[in-house]
Amino acid sequence: MIPEDHPRYRSLAARERLADAAREGIVALEGLTAHGRGEAFDYLIGERTTESALLAARTAAALLTTAHCPVISVNGNTAALAAGEIADLQKASGALVEVNLFHRTETRIHRITALLEEHGVNVLAGRAERLVPLSHDRALCLPDGIGSADVVLVPLEDGDRCAALRAMGKQVITIDINPLSRTARTATLTIVDELTRALPNITTACAGLDSAAAADLIGSLDNTYLLRAAITEIQKRLEHALD
Ligand code: PTJ
Fold first, then answer.
1. What atom of ligand 1 comes closest to residue 193's alpha carbon?
2. What is the predicted pLDDT for the residue at 3?
3. In what helix (H) or strand (E) does residue 111 lie, and over which residues does it extend?
């Protein structure tokens, strides 16, 4: 039991949730190490949403709400940390939700789907086909979901699939607290923020955007600028870390 007045309560509670979800076969064991890397970068950025991350979240809302077929791709970590936030974003954006796993097993797909449904997510069902140009199981996706998507949100993604989705002509939005990762540098749009802070920001922005504001945000999208801004935030924080 983690005491709520512990100074690191949020972090410890997230770890406990992920460890429980790993025991339940929802999170891959590799997902625990991925989370640790994420936590390290979150320390560096100050465990807060920066201005450039907020701009990126608003731009993500613009891309999702103006897409013909927006899809949110959910993996084990995302389901364990943010099933409710995914439900809210689905409602606000009208996006389809597909479970898509790096460490893919049918059992994990069923468990993650059940968890998402418990939180009110409408999860796309169907027979997965090898549509993404990759040699491993990440090639598998649903023809009516990621297969047909023009915009895909892939939180906590691996770089290979991000590049393959872009090669298919799709716009890829990622949420990755590490601005140096291959995914962050390959995506159309990277939100350099922690998952559970970023998702509600996209949801809120979906409600407040008219079509002119959405077009402005999409027209001025510059992912290199967003990544540089995140790295600058980290540099500034490190310079003053012990002040
Ligand atoms: O559930 P599966 O089988 O699909 O596997 C999921 C993992 C996460 C294991 C898989 O996609 C993977 O190996 O991912 P990577 O390549 O480790 O990439 C994850 C990225 O997300 C890294 O750059 C982490 O720094 C970042 N990250 C981890 N936790 C968070 C995060 N970014 C934002 N918020 C987080 N909570």
1. 33
2. 84
3. helix 106-118
Q: Respond yes or no on whether ipTM tops 0.90.
A: yes
pLDDT digits (tens, 9 = 90+) for 3-16: 888 888 888 999 99
Give mean pLDDT, residues 112-120: 98
In-domain check, residue 1 = no
- In angstroms, the CA 65 to CA 204 distance is 12
Domain that holds residue 202: 51-239
In a domain, residue 40? The reply is no
Residue 198: CATH number of its domain: 3.40.50.12640
Q: What are 96's two structure tokens?
A: 């389809």
Spatial separation of the C-alpha atoms in residues 124 and 107, rounded to whole Å: 16
Annotated binding site: 15, 37, 176-178, 182-183
Pocket lining for ligand 1, CB < 6 angstroms: 28, 30-31, 34-35, 37-38, 41, 75-77, 81, 101-103, 156, 158, 175-178, 181, 194-195
User: Considering only CA atoms, which residue is closest to atom 11 of ligand 1?
Assistant: 157
